Amino acid sequence: MKAEKKDGASKKIERTVVVTVAETTTVGTVAKI
């Protein structure tokens, strides 16, 4: 149960990081243009 909870949190954090990086990249691209 503990391992599952940790894995779920890990995946949630990973997804948040991916979204943040995507947003940052988009903002950076728009700023360049």
Automatic annotation (TrEMBL):
- Output the superkingdom of the source species: Eukaryota
This one is known as Uncharacterized protein
